[in-house]
Structure formats: structure tokens, C-alpha cells
């Protein structure tokens, strides 16, 4: 089996066997638990050392350095005090530690001495029965990765983006995991970007739905201009998506093109695959933004056209009503000598002329499309 097939298979979701007795590899932090460490393991020759279930992060790195291999520690939303000991044990840079604890960072790749610090934004699509002006379309989280020579630390923020399944799939591929921490970094990067692809496909369906609704509102009495709220909400969600995707391009380019001591050469070339997928997502997001701009402009144009049609109708009826108003105004004047004022057929004649004039004006306006 080729290396690229191993890499892709390791980070793709795979069906779990029913009745598996494997212990969980990662869980969402329980607020009642006094530690943010959700998993701590040592991997030697690509296999998890099974006698390390109760290892502390310090014990894990000591065991990894003593027996070879590397330690992988997973944390979920650690506090400063919880992360301080781990940072001191692994010699993490204070700036990177601060970013990892406080989160809300843009995707980036930084090097501190013998450690690579990588930030990924995770995106989760929020299912909804109907898209409204207040619908939440995407939820974001963060995964910070510290990659060292003999350790790998992940710090997650947010309820989404669990790495449990990913860790399990990597453990099922010892040949890949034997490549060291850089193999885990690639797997996480690929996992995050594949999540972007899935979200982009789901958002495409929402945009297609809005586009269909807007351009199908062409019939008489259609409520044109009523979808502006939904379109604007989608634009906000696309902007949130764009903030996760766009800054990640430079880090992926560096990981795929620039030689790094902490990245195995056999692994580095496969970051290009991740970069290609990321470029595809970036193009989709840019296309979404431009398409939503066009849809919004078309929606507003429809609203403007509808308003113009309403004004034409109001003006037409005002012109028709002006005829009897004028006639009634003339005959309402208190002059003694007026034409046909005392004639027997004067009243029906005036009514007939008034109705006939109104009908003629109505026919003309109807023929010209004003009514």
C-alpha cells in the first residue's frame, strides 16, 4: 500500500466495528474533572504503549525519551495553571503558551526553537430544517498543535473538532504513526481541511436554495425583496468560513515546500495534497461570496422593481380618479348660470361622460402595462 494511500486512509472516517473493546482515545472535557488532559500516550515504532494509561504528561515524555518514540498529549480548553506545568516540562515558548490558552487566534505556523506551533480553525456545519435570517450555519473551534522532536501536544477549544476518531485511525496504521509527530500534524491538517470541504458542499446547498427562491419570485404578487435577511446571514457565515480558510494557505505552503527539521521528508511532500484541497476550498469560499453579492443585488433590484410597479399602479389609479374629481369640482361651484345645470338629461350625461373617460384612461394604462 502506497504512502499517500496510507495517509489518506488514516485521516478519513472509517466505520467502527460493532462491539469494539478499545478504550476511548479522546473525550470532551467533563467540567467536574480537575484536569484538562483528555488523553496522554506514548507511541513507539508506531504502536501505542499499553501500560501508560495513567501516565502524566511529564511521565509520558520521560518514558518516550528513555525508550524511544514520542508522546502525544491531548488537552481540551486548559487554564493557565493547568497548562503551566506541561509548558515547563516540554519547554514551550511563553508566547505560544499564551495563544494556546486564550485561543481566538488566526490560523498560523510559527517556529520557536525546536518546536513548531500550528493553529487550525475547525468548522462544523450546523444542520437546520429551514434557513432563516437568524440561522446559525457554521460553528468554529480551534486546534493548536505543538510539534517537537519527541512529543506532540494538541489543545482544543470549542465543542466541535474532537480528535478521538482521528487518533484511533492513526493507531490502526502503525507504519504511518512510526514517522513520528509530523505524521500526526499532517493527519490533523488533512482532517481539518477535509472538514472544510464537507462544510463547503453543505453551504453550496443553502446558497442554491436561496438563489432558487430569489429568482423564482417572478410571478404576480410574489414577495420580492423578502430574502435579503437570509442572504445577509449567509454572507456573515461565509465570512466566518473565509477567516478560517484564507490564513491557513501560507502555513500549508511552508509545510509542503520548505524543508524543516521537525517534519519527516516522507511526510512533508504529502502536505501538498492538503494544500491543494485547501486551495479548492478557498476558491469555493471566494465564489460563494461573489455569488451571494450577485444574489443580494438581484434581490434588491427585484424589490426596487416591485416598488416602481406599485408607484405606477398608484399613479394610474390617481389619474383615473382625477376625472370624476375634476367634474365634481366644477359642478360643485355655486354659479347660477352653468351649462346643462337645469337640463333634464344633464345629470346622466355628466355621469356617462365621467364613466366613459375613466374607462378610456383605464384601457390606455392597461394596454401600456401600468395596470
Question: Your description of this structure?
Answer:
The protein has 371 residues and is α+β, with helices and mostly antiparallel strands. Helix content is 54%, strand content 13%. The protein contains 12 helices and 7 strands. The chain has a 7-stranded mixed sheet with strand order 2-1-3-7-6-5-4, sandwiched between helices. The longest helix has 61 residues. The radius of gyration is 34 Å and the shape is rod-shaped. The N terminus is likely disordered.
Please report the number of helical segments: 12
Apparent shape: rod-shaped
The count of strands amounts to 7
Rounded average pLDDT: 81
State the share of residues found in helices, binned by percent: 40-55%
> Strand-and-helix sequence, N→C?
HEEHEHHEEEEHHHHHHHH
Placed side by side, the strands forming the largest sheet appear as 2-1-3-7-6-5-4
Largest sheet, in brief, is: 7 strands, mixed
Indicate the radius of gyration in whole angstroms.
Answer: 34 Å
Strand content: 5-15%
Distance between the termini: 73 Å
Stretches where pLDDT is under 50 for at least 5 consecutive residues are 1-33
Q: What would you call the structural class?
A: alpha+beta
